[in-house]
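In full, the data.
>
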Amino acid sequence: MAERPPAAPSTASLARLRAGFQRAVDEERRRLARALHDSALQTLTAASMNLSLAERESAGMSEQARQAVVDAQALIESCGRELRELSHELFPSLLGSAGLGPALRWLARQRGEDRLTLDLAELPRFGVSVELAAYRLVEESMGGLFEQSGAVRVRVHAPAEDVLEITMEGPARRMENGQVADLAMRQRIRAVGGRLRTRVISTGLRVEVRFPPSVPDIQD
């Protein structure tokens, strides 16, 4: 008697696998970001302080030695900026310490109020997995789904306990990149149990996302 082929994984099983994989990725990114902040950046800060002391007491140095100290200080500052940017790309530190609202306000300041307008309600804290997915949605949509030069309006509110809703509107980006970004965002949002909907409106594109409660969290 021929053996039956193994049963295909159920939709629920695939969803659990996807969620577990996304959590593992997010946990590793958060761990690396913390390691950069707690180790590499603090080491650079200490080196910069030592060079500042050497620069203040450089009266007995040759001009070449003094210039070497100045150059080393500039290199350390440049390296520090790059590491901070990398750490933020891995996991925004403000998101973990203060929550989604402050992190989105910081993002709006970075992008400019003429580029990103926030309608932000008073938000409770959500699980880190949900807050990270929501933050990445707004951050990545700015260049992936919406025109880079257009204004995007973002509304973030919590209509019920442990439920987070985000609505974004702006001029749609008419490039293949947008389709790729849309797929990546859907996968990230589905991994934490959320649902994403996009539709064309008179002003461009409308993105609606709802994150439900009871989402497994990233472990500290």
Summary: Residues 11-90 form one domain.
